[in-house]
From TrEMBL, chain A:
The complex is composed of two ATP-binding proteins (GsiA), two transmembrane proteins (GsiC and GsiD) and a solute-binding protein (GsiB). One of its GO terms (molecular function) is ATP hydrolysis activity. This is Glutathione import ATP-binding protein GsiA. Belongs to the ABC transporter superfamily. Glutathione importer (TC 3.A.1.5.11) family. Its main location: membrane. Part of the ABC transporter complex GsiABCD involved in glutathione import. Responsible for energy coupling to the transport system. Residues 8-243 form the ABC transporter domain. One of its GO terms (biological process) is transmembrane transport. It comes from Primorskyibacter flagellatus. It is found in: Cell inner membrane; Membrane. GO terms for cellular component: plasma membrane.
UniProtKB/TrEMBL annotation, chain B:
GO terms for biological process: transmembrane transport. Pfam families: ABC_tran. PANTHER family: DIPEPTIDE TRANSPORT ATP-BINDING PROTEIN DPPD, OLIGOPEPTIDE TRANSPORT ATP-BINDING PROTEIN APPD. This is Peptide/nickel transport system ATP-binding protein. Belongs to the ABC transporter superfamily. GO terms for molecular function: ATP binding; ATP hydrolysis activity. CDD domains: ABC_NikE_OppD_transporters. It is found in: Cell inner membrane. Keywords: ATP-binding, Cell membrane, Membrane, Nucleotide-binding, Transport. The lineage of its organism: Bacteria, Pseudomonadati, Pseudomonadota, Alphaproteobacteria, Rhodobacterales. InterPro entries: AAA+_ATPase, ABC_Ni/Peptide_Import, ABC_transporter-like_ATP-bd, P-loop_NTPase. It is a peripheral membrane protein. Residues 6-255 form the ABC transporter domain.
TrEMBL record, chain C:
The chain crosses the membrane at residues 38-60, 104-129, 149-175, 221-247, 267-289. This is Peptide/nickel transport system permease protein. Gene3D superfamilies: MetI-like. Belongs to the binding-protein-dependent transport system permease family. The keyword Membrane applies. It is a multi-pass membrane protein. The lineage of its organism: Bacteria, Pseudomonadati, Pseudomonadota, Alphaproteobacteria, Rhodobacterales. GO terms for cellular component: plasma membrane.
Length: 254, 286, 303
């Protein structure tokens, strides 16, 4: 086996049928190496989240070829798939069950993956994501946005996956917490050899964490380039250049 | 400024809990003219509570106290609940932080836009529809006709946010409180949305309170900035003078942002000093 | 452990074990409920009624079935009849006590069956969507289209008269509104990220519905059930009145009212006291339900 973690060819994703059919992603193709961190940026509504959701099996209406962690994906995902691939959602306020404590969330995830000695694993897992033991029995409404996102990351890490799909993990968080989460993600990747696909609209964030970046517009991947090229502002596609320009502008002003 | 749209003096918001009183906002004062006032600060610093307090949207056990909150000389603290309902969404609008939470999950986007417009103006349904579509178009939503028929879970994160913005801008408010309105938007769309708000401030003389944790963005977009920490304003300055900012907290916020051009292996994390908490609030009156 | 210690242990910000966390959340729920005066009033009234039902033989002054035509329709307080007597000379006070047993029995049975059926139908249909949803909801609509009493009548006629059958009939007619509520809740929940997240852990639909969706539907159902209590008692009474529920000599409250109705103008107490009892129990349920909602509701308003 080569060390390609994710290989996506000709991916189309659509919603609705007949006259209501709208295409969210068309002819997407990209590959991610084992241990690599791959970023997806682009316009809002361009289908970034949809690609991740299609990989995770949350959108049934797609066509194309996806090979993820050595498994060619069909309409259904196996249990083994979810032990290898996990996802963190965009909105930390909506991704935790309002009536479940951190402990319940994590132990259920571990139980579903058939892990044993859950009681001793939970504190270790929480420590991994920088949550102290005092948070173990809290409900989501007793946590701040950053803490919730840590819980969501911990839940995704519960089964020690190889691949993490990150859907704007920091866009709802403030800059100081964002820095903490980004540092955490960097550490986790180094320690566990994880592969990331990270969606973000913030070029600074993607540039910080990822080596290669796909740029999307209106459901299409217009360009895949590596970070160095991006920093040198040598993008080929006009949309990428526009994106780069405006983001450089907005960070330079002060 | 001669006649501020909004004048807030010594605003306090507190929550009585079993373990004691949590003070979310601890005595802040500011005025808002026909300008763009930015409020920045980390999570939990009381930004949203400030916005909600102005609209009297804080539910028990939360308590709002202030020496006065006046809007056009009208005392908000003394206004009746009916009067508040009239003001909210009409003269003052607030774009809530969590768009998907604020939208009704079982109604289409279009219905909600139309309903909110009809609640304040007596217009025919078809005309409301036209205006709603035009507004969605203005906030840079592609194919607004289709989006009108979608349910909130069918729109992307950034679209949800723009729908919220459109809904709040529809009645043409005099004061707009925008709570992190652009956190899920990419830069180019962000610029467009900011542009609309800018137009409203310039052309219609709207007053805008722009709440965000992104100091760079606020510095670019607003006229004045108030930096909040632990329920108080620790620093207040003209946006153009942000580079002269002194407070270590303000500097920390500036430094925590990853920068595309200047990569760093690790990002700086704020080191908080307990003394910041005790420092008196700076007034942001003009 | 002293009480102060226990309290600290229960209210600790950082429970150290699952058991402590569970007790702590119960205790906090109890504190919330206790701080709601009206709910406590409801709880106390209910407790009193239940105690009265349990200790009816001790508290009763007369045999509830003993007729004494010489003493019929006596006013309250006459010759040892605390609340007077009915048209057959039976002691109303004693009958109320024994009647509490039947009424509570009916209410509890209905309250257990109907919301459960509604919950299952509503959440399954809401979560499954598509054809399953359409079929289940049409069935619900059909049930909703009939007046409750008529439908109950039909069921009892088919099943035979008697309290158990009456309960069954009422439950079968009472579930559709619960199904509607549960479905509406499910629709708002099923597309949320936390449900997606648990699907990504490999959880199947059964687990998602029972462990993740039900807990969120229950609070609105509880409210609705407590609001419906009075209606349930009255439907039971109406069935009794029509000879299809509790049978005449038995001191069921609804049956007592309908019996007393004939004399309402001249002998007001015959119908009034059972009426007050029904009023008290339904009000108590309502107040308690309100408090329970506060207790069960997730505090999601910090955003
Ligand atoms: N369940 C759905 N039904 C119908 N359309 C949908 C559904 N989910 C997404 N879409 C549509 O697919 C398109 C892409 O959405 P997606 O969430 O992938 O955008 P995104 O790139 O993640 O944007 P953002 O940065 O704003 O989150 C949007 O036009 C959206 O309306
Ligand atoms: N119902 C409540 N009970 C107790 N404390 C509360 C309640 N609601 C809010 N708070 C507290 O009020 C403080 C201010 O909250 P606020 O929502 O204003 O923060 P914010 O500055 O908007 O943060 P963010 O950037 O995360 O939105 C927080 O510390 C929070 O814990
Ligand atoms: Mg998205
Ligand atoms: Mg906020």
């Amino acid at each position: 086996m080569t060390d390609t973690a994710i290989d996506i060819q000709n991916l189309d994703v659509w919603f609705g049928s007949g006259r209501d059919r709208s295409v969210a992603v068309s002819q997407a193709r990209f590959a991610v190496e084992q241990g690599e961190s791959f970023g997806i940026v682009g316009e809002s509504g361009s289908g970034k989240s949809t690609i991740l959701r299609a990989i995770a099996g949350l959108v049934p209406t797609w066509s194309g070829d996806m090979i993820v962690a050595g498994e060619a994906l069909g309409p259904r995902r196996s249990k083994a798939f979810y032990r290898k691939v996990q996802m963190v959602f965009q909105d930390p306020y909506a991704s935790l069950h309002p009536r479940q404590t951190v402990d319940r969330v994590l132990s259920e995830a571990m139980g579903l993956h058939g892990l044993t000695d859950i009681d001793s694993r939970i504190p270790r897992l929480m420590e991994n994501v920088g949550l102290g033991p005092s948070f173990r029995f809290r409900f989501p409404h007793q946590l701040s946005g950053g803490q919730r996102q840590r819980v969501a990351i911990a839940r995704a890490l519960a089964c020690s996956p190889q691949i993490l799909l990150l859907d704007e993990p920091t866009s709802a968080l403030d800059v100081s917490v964002q820095a903490e989460i980004l540092n955490l993600l960097t550490d986790l990747r180094r320690d566990h050899g994880l592969t990331y696909i990270m969606v973000s609209h913030d070029l600074g964030v993607v540039g910080h964490l990822c080596e290669r970046i796909a740029v999307m517009k209106q459901g299409r991947i217009v360009e895949v380039l590596d970070v160095e090229t991006m920093r040198r502002l040598e993008a080929a596609d006009p949309y990428t250049r526009q994106l780069l320009d405006s983001s450089i502008q907005s960070s330079r002003s002060v | 400024m001669s006649d501020p749209l909004l004048d807030v003096e010594n605003l306090r918001v507190s929550f009585a809990t079993r373990t004691g009183i949590i003070e979310a906002v601890r005595g802040i004062s500011f005025t808002l003219g026909r300008e763009r006032l930015g409020i920045v600060g980390e999570s939990g610093s009381g930004k949203s509570m400030t916005g909600r307090a102005i609209l009297r949207l804080i539910r028990p056990p939360g308590r709002v106290e202030a020496d006065h909150i006046t809007m056009h000389g009208e005392d908000i603290l003394a206004a009746s609940e009916a009067r508040m309902r009239q003001l909210r969404g009409g003269r003052v609008s607030m774009i809530m932080q969590d768009p998907k939470f604020s939208l009704n999950p079982v109604m289409t986007v279009g219905q909600q836009l139309i309903d909110s417009l009809r609640a304040h103006e007596k217009l025919a349904r078809s005309e409301c529809r036209q205006r709603a579509i035009a507004m969605l178009d203005e906030v840079a939503i592609r194919d607004p006709e289709r989006v009108m028929g979608l349910y909130p879970h069918e729109v992307s994160g950034g679209m949800g946010q723009r729908i919220m913005i459109a809904m709040m801008l529809l009645p043409g408010p005099e004061i707009l409180i925008a709570d992190e309105p652009t956190s899920a938007l990419d830069v180019s769309v962000q610029l467009q949305v900011l542009d609309i708000m800018d137009q409203l401030v310039k052309n219609r003389g709207m007053g805008l309170i722009f709440i965000s944790h992104d100091l760079n963005l606020v510095a670019k977009f607003c006229d004045r900035i108030a930096v909040m920490y632990a329920g108080r304003i620790v620093e207040c300055c003209k946006a153009s003078e942000l580079h002269k900012a002194q407070h270590p907290y303000t500097l920390g916020l500036l430094n925590a942002v990853p920068d595309l051009e200047h990569p760093r292996p690790r990002l700086e994390v704020l080191q908080r000093d307990p003394a910041w908490r005790e420092a008196l609030s700076v007034s942001a009156r003009s | 452990m002293t009480t102060a210690n226990l309290r600290d242990w229960l209210l600790s910000d950082a429970p150290t074990s699952r058991r402590q966390a569970r007790f702590a959340s119960w205790y906090k729920g109890w504190l919330t409920l206790r701080s709601n005066t009206l709910a406590m009033v409801g709880l106390i009234v209910l407790a009193l009624i239940i105690l009265a039902a349990i200790f009816a033989p001790v508290l009763a002054t007369h045999d509830p079935y003993a007729q004494d035509l010489g003493q019929r329709l006596l006013g309250a307080g006459h010759s040892g009849h605390l609340l007077g007597t009915d048209s057959l000379g039976r002691d109303i006070y004693s009958r109320l006590l024994y009647g509490a047993r039947i009424s509570i029995y009916i209410v509890l049975l209905v309250a257990m069956v109907a919301p459960l059926v509604g919950l299952i139908v509503g959440t399954v249909s809401g979560y499954a969507g598509g054809w399953g949803d359409v079929v289940l909801m049409r069935i619900t609509d059909i049930f909703l289209a009939f007046p409750r009493l008529i439908l109950a009548l039909a069921f009892v006629a088919a099943l035979g008269a008697g309290i158990e059958n009456a309960v069954l009939a009422i439950s079968l007619t009472a579930w559709p509104p619960y199904a509607r509520i549960a479905r509406a809740e499910t629709l708002t929940i099923r597309n949320s990220d936390y449900i997606h997240a648990i699907r990504l852990q490999g959880a199947g639909p059964f687990r998602i519905v029972t462990r993740h969706i039900w807990p969120l539907c229950i609070s609105s159902l509880v409210i609705r059930v407590t609001l419906d209590m009075a209606g349930i008692i009255l439907t039971a009474a109406a069935l009794g009145f029509l000879g299809l529920g509790a049978q005449p000599p038995s001191p069921e409250w609804g049956a007592m009212i309908s019996e007393g109705r004939k004399y309402i103008l001249d002998y007001w107490w015959v119908a009034t006291f059972p009426g007050l009892a029904i009023f008290a129990i339904s009000l108590a349920f309502n107040l308690l339900g309100d408090g329970l909602r506060d207790m069960l509701d997730p505090k999601e308003d910090t955003a």
